[in-house]
């Protein structure tokens, strides 16, 4: 009876516990259960004062209403005057004059989207003030305060300002207009093009809220393998409808532009960037776009890469192509993000391609162009050294591209926290300008004095109820936003923030999940591509191991091209005796990799072809080390399974079960990777798998005949 009453009571209060389907991601706003904290929060925020009336102010009001009502379990009043113990949310020029005076100079060094959170006493009233130069800044400040509350931190003595370090903090959707997502493992596209522009899915607003809460301020809606259709008027109207939802949240829309659009939708016979009709066509198109979407962000372009059209088809350079579009967008403040992901099948080493094509163009791009560079020289592998191009175009703003969707990282089923990968890249010293020329300092504009700066992540979002399919995929989306705001944040800080908001503040839960997350990326490298192996996955779908594969339409899509395993040894010689890709790095970095005996083992096979008997720092031979690493990777997953089990009582049953099953797949896959790779390499090295490591469950042929015709995202 008591139980029934309790349930009824909870229900009547309107706080029935919802199933944890993951939809709210890190914006769960669960009721504060600790009495002391609850009372402290209620004391601090007795009412809200939001004087502004912009759509962003409305978004702030809605967010606070929802969040405070849920966390404080009481309704919050929005008052027309500042009451004692109020939360004041307003851009600086909407505050009363005395407050403007008191706080104005604190904002002097704050960026236009930065914010100030401050507890003050004003006219005898204790106030919590969120202010900024713009209403978007106030929105970011609001989310910062709500983050603190979700993390159950004190808010009675706030004094914090924060400004984003990067100007463009973006997502790139590889979403086709059919809603099929290239390399998407979380369902189909959230953009329901067919029902747009009339039907506005509420998901668009939640997408905007989630992004704004982590500082994301732009999104490219469609795949870089682009269809020109998106640039036709009916589709631009659909884009405009999305832009309208995202705008109050400070998010601009961008589009991937197909370089040959003037031919496909403009009836021209050429897309030559130096042709007058082509120039006029793009100018007219830009004019049309801005008449429909006045704050349109600009174009992302993949040109002359993997079959995409581009300026080289007309004997022109990437700079000619980028500048054509940049000139068309310039009158409206738009930008071009021109991708450097290019590689020509005839080249000797795919590693060197982007650098060779793009470095001669440094200084040739117009001022509203950024060259968008993937973090590594090949393609989002579990571990790559940095792309040498990052340190070789000082005159050009470079936009760093990471991949959130786990194309090569276990796709939709593996728990891999990517922040350690992002940090490894950002913290790498390129020696471009002597020591301390980190990738972060290049990308944030400090090293070469650029103001147009940015980081982007290829989105891992789809229409799965929880957005990313794997509940931990959300952490990668979260981490990208937080690092683009502040590249100095540590993986650990970001993980803990995310865990508290996503799974609650029980210290045992936080510590256990944090440990799992921080180890997960290295574990994945160990069971997939240890010691600098790379690109040894199945062709096309990129799912699972296939180091034997050698029949792709082009050699640089074949695993054998990358590992070069033979009787003698394994690895790609990129030193002076080989492809000499190492020469593309500055000496300070080059020498860290140049010598096989001192090269960091994590990168060894990226740069050296070494004997199976090569002595590793561990004292093991290379072959034994490879066996050790693959097994350590499998053990790492077993450990994650155990850790997850240990916190079972503290996790809601839905997500507990979901992650348990996914870890089960990850464990099987890790064993599969280990056994398939070790069987194959053992057959080439003619060396047995040494004790005490387990023997593969199947002969090599078994792994070789596995087929995945319907693997997702391909
Ligand atoms: O990672 C590879 C993918 C392609 C992708 C390409 C790119 C969008 O396998 O699916 O195409 O890179 O980045 O352009």
Describe the structure.
With 714 residues, the protein is α/β, with parallel strands linked by helices. The protein has 3 domains: 18-162, Chitobiase/beta-hexosaminidase domain 2-like (Chitobiase, domain 2), CATH 3.30.379.10; 168-503, TIM Barrel (Alpha-Beta Barrel), CATH 3.20.20.80; 526-572 and 609-704, Alpha-Beta Complex (Alpha-d-glucuronidase, C-terminal Domain). Helix content is 38%, strand content 10%. The protein has an 8-stranded parallel β-barrel with strand order 7-8-9-10-11-12-13-14. It has a 6-stranded mixed beta sheet with strand order 2-1-3-5-4-6. A two-stranded antiparallel sheet has the order 15-16. Strand 11 (335-339), helix 11 (353-358) and strand 12 form a beta-alpha-beta unit. Helix 16 packs antiparallel against helix 20. The longest helix is centred in the C-terminal third of the chain and has 33 residues, at 653-685. The chain is globular. Residues 4-17 have low confidence and may be disordered. 4-O-methyl-beta-D-glucopyranuronic acid is lined by residues 174, 182-183, 224-225, 302, 341, 379-380, 407. 4-O-methyl-beta-D-glucopyranuronic acid binds next to loops.
Helix-strand layout with pairing:
Blueprint lengths: L1 H11 L22 H10 L2 E3 L5 H18 L4 E2 L7 E6 L5 H8 L10 E8 L2 E8 L2 H16 L8 E4 L5 E5 L29 H12 L4 E3 L12 H14 L5 E5 L4 H4 L11 H17 L5 E4 L16 H12 L5 E5 L13 H6 L10 E6 L23 E6 L15 H9 L11 H5 L10 E5 L14 H13 L5 H13 L3 H22 L30 H5 L5 E2 L16 H8 L9 H4 L2 E2 L10 H25 L6 H33 L14 H5 L10
Parallel strand pairs: 1-2, 1-3, 3-5, 7-8, 7-14, 8-9, 9-10, 10-11, 11-12, 12-13, 13-14
Antiparallel strand pairs: 4-5, 4-6, 15-16
The structure holds 4-O-methyl-beta-D-glucopyranuronic acid.
């Amino acid at each position: 009876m008591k139980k029934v009453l309790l349930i009824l009571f909870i229900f009547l209060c309107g706080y029935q516990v919802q199933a944890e389907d993951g939809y709210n991601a890190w914006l769960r706003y669960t009721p504060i259960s600790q009495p002391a904290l609850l009372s402290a929060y209620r004391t601090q925020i007795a009412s809200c004062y939001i004087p502004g009336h912009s759509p962003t102010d409305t978004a702030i009001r809605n967010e606070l209403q929802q969040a405070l009502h849920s966390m404080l379990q009481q309704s919050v009043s929005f008052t027309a005057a500042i009451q004692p113990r109020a939360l004041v949310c307003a851009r600086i020029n909407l505050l009363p004059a005395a407050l403007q005076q008191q706080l104005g100079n604190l904002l002097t060094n704050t960026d236009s989207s930065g914010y100030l959170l401050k507890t003050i006493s004003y006219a005898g009233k204790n106030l919590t003030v969120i202010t900024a130069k713009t209403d978007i800044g106030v929105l970011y400040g609001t989310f910062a305060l709500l983050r603190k509350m979700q993390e159950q931190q004190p808010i009675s003595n706030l004094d914090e300002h924060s400004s984003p370090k990067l100007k463009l903090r973006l997502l790139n959707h590889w979403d086709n207009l059919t809603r099929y997502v290239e390399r998407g493992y979380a369902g189909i596209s959230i953009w329901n093009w067919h029902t747009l522009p009339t039907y506005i899915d509420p998901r668009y607003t939640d997408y905007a809220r989630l992004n704004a809460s982590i500082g994301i301020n732009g999104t490219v809606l469609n795949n870089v393998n682009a269809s020109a259709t998106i640039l036709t008027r009916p589709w631009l109207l659909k884009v405009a409808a999305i832009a309208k939802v995202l705008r109050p949240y400070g998010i601009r829309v961008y589009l991937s532009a197909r370089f040959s659009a003037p031919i496909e939708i403009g009836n021209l016979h050429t897309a030559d960037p130096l042709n007058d009709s082509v120039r006029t066509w793009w100018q007219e198109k830009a004019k049309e776009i801005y008449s429909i979407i006045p704050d349109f962000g600009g174009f992302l372009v993949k040109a002359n890469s993997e079959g995409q059209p581009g300026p080289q088809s007309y004997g022109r350079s990437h700079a000619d192509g980028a500048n054509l579009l940049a000139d068309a967008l310039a009158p409206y403040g738009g930008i071009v993000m021109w991708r450097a992901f290019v590689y020509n099948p005839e080249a000797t080493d795919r590693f060197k391609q982007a650098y060779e094509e793009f470095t001669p163009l440094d200084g040739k791009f117009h001022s509203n162009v950024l060259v968008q560079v993937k973090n590594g020289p090949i393609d989002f592998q579990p571990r790559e050294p940095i792309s040498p191009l990052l340190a070789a175009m000082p005159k050009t703003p470079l936009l760093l591209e990471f991949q959130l969707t786990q194309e090569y990282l276990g796709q939709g089923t593996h728990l891999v926290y990517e922040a350690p990968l992002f940090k490894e890249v950002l913290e790498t010293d390129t020696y471009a300008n002597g020591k301390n020329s980190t990738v972060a300092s290049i990308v944030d504009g400090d090293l070469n004095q650029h103001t147009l700066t940015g980081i982007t992540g290829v989105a891992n979002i789809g229409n799965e109820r929880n957005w990313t399919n794997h509940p931990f995929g959300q952490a990668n989306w979260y981490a990208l936003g937080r690092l683009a705001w502040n590249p100095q944040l540590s993986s650990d800080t970001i993980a803990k923030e995310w865990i508290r908001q996503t799974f609650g503040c029980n210290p045992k839960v936080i510590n256990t999940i944090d440990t799992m997350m921080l180890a997960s990326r290295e574990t994945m490298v160990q069971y997939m591509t240890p010691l600098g192996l790379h690109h040894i996955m199945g062709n096309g779908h990129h799912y699972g191991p296939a180091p034997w594969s050698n029949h792709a339409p082009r050699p640089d899509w074949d695993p054998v091209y990358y590992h070069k395993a033979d009787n003698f040894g394994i690895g790609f010689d990129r030193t002076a005796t080989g492809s000499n890709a190492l020469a593309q790095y500055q000496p300070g970095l080059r020498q860290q990799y140049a010598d096989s005996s001192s090269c960091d083992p994590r990168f060894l096979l990226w740069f050296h072809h070494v004997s199976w008997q090569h002595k590793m720092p561990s004292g093991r031979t290379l072959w034994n080390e490879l066996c050790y690493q693959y097994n350590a990777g499998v053990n790492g997953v077993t450990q994650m399974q155990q850790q997850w089990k240990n916190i079972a009582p503290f996790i809601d049953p839905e997500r507990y079960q979901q992650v348990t099953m996914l870890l089960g797949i990850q464990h099987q896959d890790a064993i599969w990777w280990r056994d398939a790779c070790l069987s194959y390499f053992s057959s080439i090295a003619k060396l047995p798998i040494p004790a005490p490591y387990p023997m593969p469950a199947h002969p090599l042929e078994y792994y070789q005949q596995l087929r995945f015709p319907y693997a997702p995202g391909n």
